[in-house]
Design goal:
alpha+beta, Jelly Rolls, five-stranded antiparallel beta sheet, four-stranded antiparallel beta sheet, 4 helices, globular
Length: about 170
Amino acid sequence: MPITAPLSSKLALISAQGFAFRESRQPDYRFEWHTHDCAMLLWPRLGKLKSAWMALGHDSDRAPGLADSRAARLVRGSAVLLPVCAPHLTVSDSGRQQHGELYLPPDSLHACRHFGALRLDGASPVSIRRRLLAAHARALLSEGHSLARVSERLGFATSGHLSRLLRTAGEQTR
């Protein structure tokens, strides 16, 4: 039986900073089958989550375009990374839960071949956000925007904070 998975668009949120981050503390969390027009990293911070998704051809050993169902029980230190348009659902496995969702531009994971459940160190979501924010800032600077304007647009208190991010994010990728 085919899954009905409506689109939950995040591109408008991503356009402001080059990514979008959301936290949820909703008790008894449940988000039925849906897709996003971007990639997504989902990880629990408290409690447990059950995540199910349809693995598309590029994420499995099946032919491109075909899908099969996958599921994982997520606890602190684990995550699920989903490509653009992957139908998925998320349900809290315990009454109390907290989780993070990082939405990534559709082209940011074009070379990635490992989607699905993965182990995660605590710093990974933060470092991913920092790298994406730095990349977005560099793109705006290359378009001719001033450091002060980019700092303001991205929500930095001062341009010194953005300069520090650009320096440290550049060091992390070397």
